[in-house]
Design a protein that fits this description.
By secondary structure, the protein is mostly helical. The chain contains ten helices and two strands. It has two domains: 64 residues, Orthogonal Bundle (Arc Repressor Mutant, subunit A); 153 residues, Four Helix Bundle (Hemerythrin (Met), subunit A) (Up-down Bundle), CATH 1.20.120. Strands 1-2 form a two-stranded antiparallel sheet.
Length: 241
């Protein structure tokens, strides 16, 4: 056999090692869709590497669709399934039946997520969920916060399943839903009442997950999504939840 066919494997450049580590954290769901990653200088300290290595790694991640840089805000994780789902929803957004289908898929994914989170959630997962609900409960009005807290809660429930594919699927779906659902608060006759009702429902879900009661968590999520679907049918052609 001609040994010349085999080439020595070159050592990876530092920028490639930085890229691989951040990408792995995103793909496995440790870094969640929508989560802000540390700024450039902080990453330099964390990795003990040069600024140019970090900058090149982050640029590559952005080019491949793993992160996005928002002017004046920082760099945020993107869902690896986002482009496919967003392209589809953009085409179907004017079709009322699309929203019914979307809510049905949410039931399949999120009821399973609540049940599984009750079995798998770590102490940190539970603390994160409880903190989000407490923040929602601390709202005193007169207008409710925007939908990002709701989205964050549902994404964190998905994260508590420790299923990377579900984390990215829900990150894509809920990011889009969160954007359009802000409109329902704008058009609802009593937006604060709606927000408070959703917050109470979220509290029941989180309490069940924290208690490790899988069936109670699944039932609470089912009730919540049924309410959300009803709001969708009564209001404009946008979902809520």
């Amino acid at each position: 056999m001609d040994k010349a066919l085999f080439k020595k494997i070159p050592k990876k450049k530092v920028r490639d090692k930085v890229f691989d580590q951040i990408k792995s954290l995103i793909v496995e769901g440790t870094l969640l869709p929508g989560q802000k990653i540390p700024p450039e200088l902080e990453l330099c300290d964390l990795f003990s590497v040069s600024r140019s290595s970090v900058r090149e790694a982050v640029l590559r991640l952005e080019c491949l669709g793993f992160v996005e840089q928002r002017h004046g805000e920082g760099t945020f994780v993107k869902s690896v399934t986002e482009s496919v789902i967003l392209n589809y929803t953009a085409e179907m957004a004017s079709d009322r039946s699309f929203f019914s289908g979307l809510m049905e898929i949410r039931e399949v994914l999120e009821i399973w997520a609540a049940r599984t989170a009750a079995d798998r959630a770590s102490e940190k997962d539970i603390n994160d969920l409880v903190q989000i609900v407490r923040t929602m409960e601390s709202n005193t009005g007169p207008l409710p916060p925007r939908y990002d807290q709701n989205v964050d809660l549902h994404c964190r429930i998905a994260a508590a399943t420790h299923n990377p594919f579900l984390i990215h699927m829900m990150g894509s779906i809920l990011d889009w839903i969160g954007t359009v659902t802000d409109r329902i608060y704008d058009e609802h006759a009593h937006p604060l009442d709606l927000f408070n009702t959703l917050t109470r429902q979220h509290r029941v879900i989180v309490d069940a997950i924290a208690a490790g009661d899988a069936e109670a968590a699944a039932n609470a999520m089912a009730d919540h999504l049924e309410f959300a679907a009803k709001q969708t049918r009564q209001g404009p052609v946008v979902p809520t939840g």
